[in-house]
Structures are given as C-alpha cells and as structure tokens.
Write a structure and sequence with these properties.
mainly alpha, two-stranded antiparallel sheet
C-alpha cells in the first residue's frame, strides 16, 4: 500500500479494480480524483502484455483445463437432473404422487434430492478447486504480480 497525495491509502496491487474505486470515470460527473501517477521506471512491461503472456502460458491453460473438465460435466449433469425432475413432475403427476412411506411421495423425495445434489455438487467443486487448482492459480497470481511489477517471475 502507498499513500496518495490526498493522504488516503491506495492499493499497490495489479489485481486492484481501479474502476470500482471511481478512477477512470469523468471527474466532473463523480467528483472523483484521477488515478495516482505510477512511480517512474516501474512499468518495464505494460500490464496488458503481462496478462496476455500469463494467459498464453502452459500453467494458465492447465488451470483453465482442470476447471472446465470439472465444471462442464458437473453443470450438464445437474441441468439434466433438474430438467428431468421438472418434466417428470409436469408430465407424470401420478408417478410423482406415488407414496413411498406414509405422507412422503416420489415427488417430495425428488425435490429433496435436488437440494441434496446442489450441496453435494458445491462440496465436490470446492474440494476439486482446493486439491487441483488453488495452488497452481495462486502461483500464477504471484508470478503475474511479479511480472507486472517488472521483477520477472516464473510464468
């Protein structure tokens, strides 16, 4: 972090969203100050080039591939299960009304199954991210920050 001329603290982080803080908008419309100037000699490589280089790297492609290999099949399976539940409920009400145990019927079990599969899919996603993507993504983030600051990096 660094102090700006106005005395408030600003983030010295390439991941900081400058537009969210009011920078980049017209000063007349928002009354916001312009972004503080960069320190001289600090930007050896433009940030856009750094992010493009990281995006093209094998490590980034591997993280994206791992993400897609989990999310696409999981989302499709859940969508099919949800549509099957809705279609069955509307086209076969007799099946959904069939009692299973006392007042509990097939439709109630399938509806509760929707909630259960939502929680299970969330748990599986978090576990997959923690075991197969988080470490690599964190290394990419640090390398990107190092490259954006002009100090090199492993990416």
């Amino acid at each position: 972090m660094q102090r700006s001329n106005a005395g408030d603290v600003t983030y010295d982080d390439p991941w900081y969203d400058a537009l969210a803080s009011g920078w980049g908008e017209s000063a007349e419309a928002t009354g916001a100050a312009e972004a503080p100037p960069r320190r001289p000699g600090r930007d050896a490589v433009p940030a856009a080039d750094v992010y493009l280089e990281v995006q093209r790297s094998a490590a980034f492609q591997e993280v994206r591939s791992r993400y897609r290999r989990f999310v696409v099949p999981g989302a499709l399976a859940f969508l099919v299960w949800y549509v099957a539940y809705v279609v069955t409920a509307t086209t076969a009400p007799g099946l959904m009304a069939r009692p299973v145990a006392g007042a509990v019927n097939v439709g109630m079990l399938a509806g509760l199954g929707q909630f259960l599969t939502t929680f299970l899919l969330t748990w599986a996603y978090v576990r997959h991210a923690r075991l197969r993507r988080d470490r690599a993504a964190l290394e990419l983030r640090w390398d990107t920050q190092e490259l954006a600051r002009g100090r090199g990096g492993a990416a």
